[in-house]
Amino acid sequence: MARFARLSDWLAWLEGLHPKAIDLGLDRIGRVWQRLGAPAIAAEVVTVAGTNGKGSSVAMLDAILGAAGYKVGRFTSPHFVRFNERVVVAGREVDDLRLIDAFERIDQARGGISLSYFEFTALAAFLCFADAGLDVVLLEVGLGGRLDAVNIIDADVALITAIDLDHQDWLGNDREAIGREKAGILRAGRVAVCSDPNPPASVAERAKEIGATLLCLGPDYQFVKEGETWDWSAPGRRWAGLPKPALPGRFQMDNAAGVLAVIATLKHEVSRAAIERGLRSVHWPGRWQVVDGVVPVVLDVAHNPHSAGGLASQLAEQPTARTLAVCGMLRTKDVVGVLKIMQPHIDAWFPVNLPSPLGLDVEAMRAHLDALPVAAPVMNCDNVEQALQVARDRATPGDRILVFGSFVTVEQAMRVLDAAPSPSSQSSE
To answer: CA 101, CA 120: separation in Å to the nearest integer?
Structure first.
C-alpha cells in the first residue's frame, strides 16, 4: 500500500526523513540505486557542476538539444514554486503521479537506509528518466560534485562552470579546494569541459590524475564577440556569426561557450540551425527575469559575491533613474561580501525576513547595510510581499525594483507577482 497519495504529503514527509538536511556521501544513495537495478537513464549523460552558471548552462544545453530533435531530461535544484520544476522530460515537468510512483519504488527498495531529501528526489528523477527512453540527460550538481548525489551516475561528459567561494563549510575555504570537489564529477577516459576562464589548478590536476580529457576555455576552445553575434572555435570545429544567448549578462557568454564545447563532444550530432534556435529561445527563471510594469521588477537569485558581481554589471549596463532593492539572504552566505558589491548600484534598500530557518533576520541585515561606506535609505520589512508593496509605493516611472539575495527571496516574489515558471517548457519556449 502506498505511503501517501499526494505529492505534497510525500514532500512534507521527506523533509523530516533524514536527521541532516545536507549529508554528503554516495554510500547510502548508491546502495539504494543498486537495489533499484541501477538502470541506464539515457544514451548520454552530461553532469554539470560549478558555483555559478550551472542552471543557465543546463538550460542552454536543453534548449539546443531539444531544438535538434532529441528527447532530453534535466534534473535541477532548487525549485521556485512547484517541486515538479526539478524534473523535466522533453520540455515538460514530470507530473505528480509519475513522481509518486518513483517515490513508492524508492521507499520500498531502501529498507532501513535513511536518505536525505535531495538524495530521495535525485533517485526519483533518475527513475523517471530511465522510464522515459531519453537520448540525453542533464544533471545539475546540488552541492560540490565529488560527494553529491548525482555523482552516482557516470557522466559521459562533465561540465564545470564558474568556480568561486560558496558552501565553504562543506567544500573548503579556497578555490583550489572547491575546484577539487567540483572535479569529482570527472571520469577516467572521458571528456570534461571547464567554462571558467580562470579555473583553479586543482581541476586540471584531477583530470590528469584520473586520465580525463579536459577542455578549458582559452587554451582548448575560444569565443570572440562580433557586435551582436559571436564566433566559437576549437581545433577542427568553428561556428561563426552565432546569435547571443537569450539569457542576459556578459558571464552568459562563458557559459554558452562551454555549452558549445559540450555539444561538440557529444555523440548526438547537433546542427548549426539547432544551436541558433536554442540560443535564441533559451529561458531560465530567476536570472535577470524582468516582470514588466510601470515600474519593472527584476528577479535575480544572486546570493554570493561572484553572482552579485554579474548582477552589478548588468545593473550598470542598464541604468535607470533609481534601483530599489528588496533583499533577503541566508545567514550561511557571505552577506557582507554581497552587499558591498551591490551597494554602489542601489538607491534604497528594503531588507526582509525569509520563511527559512537559515534566513538572516531583518535587524541583522539592516546592521550590515548601516555599516556600508555609502549609505542609502533603509526600510525594514517583515516579508517580501510587504517590501514589494512599500517599494512600489515609493517608486516612480523610470525606477526599477530589484529582488535578489536568495532563491527563497525570489520564490516569494514570484508568488506575489504571479511570475512563476510555466509548468510547460522552461528552456525551449
So the answer is: 13
> Distance between CA 185 and CA 193 in Å, rounded?
11
Other C-beta atoms closer than 10 Å to the C-beta of 101 total 15
Task: Give the C-alpha separation, 288 to 273, whole Å.
Answer: 26
- Rounded to whole angstroms, how far apart are CA atoms 20 and 12? 15
For the chain, give the number of residues: 429
Give the whole-angstrom CA distance, residue 402 versus residue 328.
11
372, three cell numbers: 556600508
List strand residue ranges (DSSP E) for 273-333, in order: 289-291, 297-300, 323-327
**Could you give the strand order of the β-sheet that contains 229-234, starting from the edge strand earlier in sequence?**
222-226, 229-234, 237-243
> Which domains occur in the chain, in start order?
7-281 (3.40.1190.10), 289-417 (3.90.190.20)
Residues 170, 22 contacting (CB under 8 angstroms):
yes
Q: Are 40 and 127 in contact (CB under 8 A)?
A: no
Q: With contact defined as beta carbons under 8 Å apart, do 44 and 267 qualify?
A: yes
- Residues 17-49 pLDDT 10s: 886 777 778 999 999 999 999 999 999 999 999
How does pLDDT run across 112-168, given as a tens digit for each residue? 999 999 999 999 999 999 999 999 999 999 888 899 999 999 999 999 999 986 555
What is the model's pTM?
0.92
